[in-house]
Amino acid sequence: MADALSVIPASVLRYLSDKLYEKRKNAALEVEGIVKQLASSGDHEKITAVINLLTTEFTYSPQANHRKGGLIGLAAATVGLTSEAAQHLEVVRGEFIIFFNQIFDALCKLSFDADANVQSAAHLLDRLVKDIVTESDQFSIEEFIPLLRERMNLLNPYVRQFLVGWITVLDSVPDIDMLGFLPDFLDGLFNMLSDSSHEIRQQADSALSEFLQEIKNSPSVDYGRMAKILVQRAASPDEFTRLTAITWINEFVKLGGDQLVPYYADILGAILPCISDKEEKIRVVAREISEELCAIKADPADAFNVGAILSIARRQLDSEWEATRIEALHWISTLLNRYHSEVLCLLNDIFDTLLKALSDSSDEVVLLVLDIHACIAQDPLQFRQLLVFLVHNFRVDHSLLERRGALIIRRLCVLLDAERVYCELSTILEGEADLDFACIMVQALNLILLTSSELSDLRELLKQSLVNAAGKDLFVSLYASWCHSPMAIISLCLLAQMYQHASAVIQSLVEEDINVKFLVQLDKLIHLLETPIFAYLRLQLLEPGRYIWLLKALYGLLMLLPQQSAAFKILQTRLKTVPSYSFNGDQLKRASSGNPYSQILHHSGSQITEDGDVNQDNGNVPNGINFASRLQQFEQMQQQHRLLAKSQAQSRNSSTSFFKEGPKAEPRWPPTSYINRPRSRSSGRGPGQLQN
User: Fold this and answer.
1) How is 222-245 classified by DSSP, letter by letter?
2) What's the pLDDT score for residue 352?
3) Interior angle at CA 183, CA 182 and CA 184, nearest 5
4) Burial 233-267 (b: 16+ CB within 10 A, else e)
5) Which GO terms fall under biological process for this protein (predicted)?
6) Which terminus has fewer CB within 10 Å in the chain: N or C?
7) Where are the domains of the chain?
């Protein structure tokens, strides 16, 4: 230091730390001249002493004016140095590179100095250092990157400008491979896209655009490490950051090929939320990426993780955005079609979520879920399991049955065969322990059966129950569970043209059965009788002599209706249009005795009664259906419902202490036996039930 003091006058050192910039500037010019003179004379030891003095006594000083003078003094000394001095100096053009990280770190700190003049001096030195680095062939990018990566986390706007400037300069040097180290500072650049300063956002965007162009032109890129960063940034709350990240992902999917296969799940997890982004540009790019990923047919053997992608899609089914849920379902459907066996092995991971999705507020979502369920249910065991769990969901959530029941049942009937669906549901409901729910469910199924266009073939089959074996099997399969609801049984009999049995069912009703719920269902049936579905029945009223039991059944319903009700007036008006017909004594006797099968007509080789029923000379068992046993089965089921209603009434009238005991534990549902129990195709009943 003594050597430095001997060559730099005390006045120059004093002015170098003066508060006035002009005095510091003039002092720096003096330093430049001194260094030039020392360099020309080859006195390198004194030059080194001057630089050390400026560094330790001025640049590192806690005093702002000293730091200002030190920086401008170093800048002047750098300008004054010549190439001849390089072999003897640590800080000179080119050869000072070995201390680059220390100098860079100091410049980084000084770039956000509170004093504007300090910053100005730091910028001057920064430009000089950049010139030296760009001209040097000794700069080590490998040693510099860790320092750069560490500094990229700083939020100070001046530091950010300083860093982006260096990244841009180094990237412009042909011999420095900044692209190879891009994963180390890519996240920092993306972080700057949301900076409050427009200038910083613009500089970061410009640098990223340049790197993306280089990636497109480079034959070797580490897509994997950068993909992880982009996935995180795609979820940024900043719109511009999301758009930039999703744009990069789009290019990566196009360029990355097999490198990105292990990251497909992460990428999908990033783009699915963007499908519903408020910004249209982001939505468009996200959908394009989804389509591109979906078009790639990867092999699970090549690190393609079906389970991971399925898990991502499942989680997105809980998204608040409909578009995202729909896209997630498209992915599940695609995976199921391409990797059916793999997905079935993972079914337990998604089944509950798919069932929950049936309660979605969007009809489109529900329909897509049903398509997936139908695809899964191609397997017989999965088919029964689907319907068992579906009934269970309806049971625990009656609102689901009310809001979505018709849509779900109708769609499943289209996708899985209506007859198969209804027979299986009937078998499940036949063993339902909750009688109230069973009644509600049967009424819902009956209404769908009577009104849905998707079930028109099923209705036609039921109309042939007395002359067609398949129709008879269907009638028998439905009958056991339809017994839960008197009106459902009556509707089924009217649909199957089993009018004598319908009349018998009506006659079997007792006082407890005629309640408000019954009358509401009866009102619905009366209105349905006026729809095109029952046009054939109304036309049969033109032949009252042939359809005596139809008339008796309809008059029986009329007698159950309150006279002031709209349904009473509708049915009464309809019956008034029936042509007058004189019944002979035998017909009246049969109608009153309940045996319509003694008087027959010949039709196509079969013996048809006046109600269109077939008599196969086996007494009261037309087409193998034992109606006496069926009526007994109905009465037994109704007796169970009466006992339940009586028990519920007693509970309501009991002391309030009963309710303080807390609710009873619900029985486990669905029982394993329900899933594994075989169903008889001909009877639709389990062991111990009534036979045909």
Assistant:
1) -HHHHHHHHHHHTT-SSHHHHHHH
2) 87
3) 90
4) bbebebeebbbbbbbbbbbbbeebeeebbebbbbb
5) phosphatidylinositol biosynthetic process
6) N
7) 1-139, 507-579+628-638
Q: What is the pLDDT of residues 528-550, one digit of tens each?
A: 999 999 999 999 999 998 999 99
- Pull the structure tokens for residue 15: 């002015």
Distance CA 183, CA 457 (A): 63
C-alpha angle with apex 37: 35 to 38, nearest 5 degrees? Answer: 65
Give Cα separations from 595 to 328, 577, 609 (angstroms): 60, 26, 10
Q: Using the 8-state DSSP alphabet, how is residue 623 labeled? A: G
Residue in the structure block whose two tokens are 């939020």 = 155
Residue partners of 497: CB distance under 8 A and separation at least 6: 463, 465, 466, 537, 611, 612, 613
With 0-12 / 13-18 / 19 or more C-beta atoms within 10 angstroms meaning exposed / middle / buried, residue 472 is: buried
Structure tokens at 275: 């499908």
Length of the chain: 692
CA-based max dimension of the chain: 147
pLDDT tens-digit series, residues 185-241: 999 999 999 999 999 999 999 999 999 999 999 888 888 889 999 999 999 999 999
Cα–Cα distance for residue pair 110/66, rounded to 1 Å: 13
Q: Which helix (H) or strand (E) holds 46?
A: helix 44-53
Q: What single-letter amino acid sits at 680? A: S
Distance separating alpha carbons of residues 115 and 124, to the nearest angstrom: 15
